[in-house]
Amino acid sequence: MEPITIIGGGLAGCEAAYQCAQQGLNVILYDMKPIKFSPAHESEDLAEMVCSNSFRSDDPCSAVGLLKEEMRTMGSLLMAIADATKVPAGKALAVDRARFARMITEKIQAHPNITIIRKEVTELPATGITILATGPLSAESLTEDLKSHTGEEHLAFYDAIAPIVSADSLNYDIIFRASRYDDGPGDYLNCPMNEEQYKRFSTALLEGSKVPLKDFENAKYFEGCLPIEVMNERGEDTLRFGPMKPVGLPDPRTGKDAYAVVQLRMENREGTHYNMVGFQTKLTYPAQREIFRMIPGMENCDFLRLGSIHRNTFVCGPKVLEPTLQMKNHPHIFLAGQISGVEGYVESTAIGLLAGRNASCLALGKKIPLPPEDTAHGALIHHLTTEVKRFQPSNVNYSLFPPFDRKGFKDSQPALPPLANKKRRRSRISKREKMEYRAKKARLSLKHWLDTLDL
């Protein structure tokens, strides 16, 4: 049987390769590093995380927590390694990204059914089952070839990377360790600002030098990952109600919430590196050093990596993709990861998992099964393949799921005495109750679906 070709050794490509290999299929995984690097990549390892080390919330009732739970149930390699390399991050799943990439590289290299070829692929194969998982920074030659295959111009938006600082360069007389609302052991470092400091910082962001876009580029930022200075331009208090929200983080020196707080999240297991949470940026390097050192406690900080901005490319899923993730005009080609039109590490990996399973079914002559729409995976597929006026990438969220089943929720509630029942009917269903109900339904739906699969 001809090997399955996977182009791209990022999160989605590695997960897809593992899923195919676990079915006993031979896989050739192409990755252009270290022959050539994208503008955002530095490591020779596979599955390099460039923007952040966080896989976001691990709450099993949140949409992204549910997606991770489903991936674990379906045997995701990357989720297993994420769990093995996690670092403290409150309710979030964050990893030591260097260990994470190294462990995945070792697992993929050691798999008897996977051959890694370090080479840039400039054209999609005309025949043979292929998974394209080159991510949002696909090389120009391959991007041009993909355009000729899709018949559609790619859409593009811009993603920004947050800086990383050295822990031993911070001032702990000012910075304090805490999780919001005292939730957990205090996994974040917090830099408190008073009103005057915040306003000076906001003004500096407005006036700071930014990296200009090229003449042919239009800024189409993903709303879930806006540069800090773009958020600041939307209003003086935007940051205070966003990534610099001080609520639930009282300054131990005063016992009161600060006017604003910058949070730092552990970047590696040793706790020597910290990521500036929500501080994606397109400020120039000199401006970053000057402005971010205005943050209390970071006056003399050592930047291990400064922020940057890069172009992300994706196809218009509803026009290009079948629900199986096959290209409509070229069914031997599957798309996986961010290039398919999802946003985020977890979502990209999940689509890689499905692409790998689906490609395996095609290779083995089996019918390709579609995940139920009320599961997190099914909701993502529905988003990628449903016609809308203007398609945009999306993280997984409950708005992508079928409408909330109010009657089903009420029918699922335990019987109560008549008076309590009457009171219950008058009360509103809380957001948490809706999340718990949706997650419970999704788990049951996924279990039933997996029990019926021949894979």
Can you give keywords for this protein?
single chain; FAD/NAD(P)-binding domain; Elongation Factor Tu (Ef-tu), domain 3; alpha+beta; 14 helices; 2 domains
Could you characterize what this model shows?
This protein is of the alpha+beta class and 455 residues long. The radius of gyration is 23 Å and the shape is globular. It starts with a strand and ends with a helix. The chain has a 6-stranded antiparallel beta sheet with strand order 10-11-14-15-9-16. A 5-stranded parallel beta sheet has the order 6-2-1-7-18, with helices on one face. Strands 3-5-4 form a 3-stranded antiparallel beta sheet. The model has no long low-confidence stretch (mean pLDDT 90). The chain is built from 14 helices and 18 strands. A hairpin with a 4-residue loop joins strand 12 and strand 13. The chain folds into 2 domains: 222 residues, FAD/NAD(P)-binding domain, CATH 3.50.50.60; 150 residues, Elongation Factor Tu (Ef-tu), domain 3, CATH 2.40.30.
CATH architecture of the largest domain: 3-Layer(bba) Sandwich
Share of helical residues: 25-40%
| Name of the CATH homologous superfamily of the largest domain | FAD/NAD(P)-binding domain
Q: Nearest-angstrom radius of gyration?
A: 23 Å
Number of helices: 14
Which parts are unreliable, with pLDDT below 50 for 5 consecutive residues or more?
none
Residue fraction in strands? 15-25%
What number is the mean pLDDT? Answer: 90
N-end to C-end Cα span: 18 Å
Shape call: globular
* Number of structural domains: 2
Strand arrangement in the largest pleated sheet: 10-11-14-15-9-16
Number of strands: 18
Going by helix content, strand content and strand pairing, the class is: alpha+beta
Q: What is the name of the CATH topology of the largest domain?
A: FAD/NAD(P)-binding domain
The biggest beta sheet is recorded as:
6 strands, antiparallel
- Would you state the CATH class of the largest domain? Alpha Beta
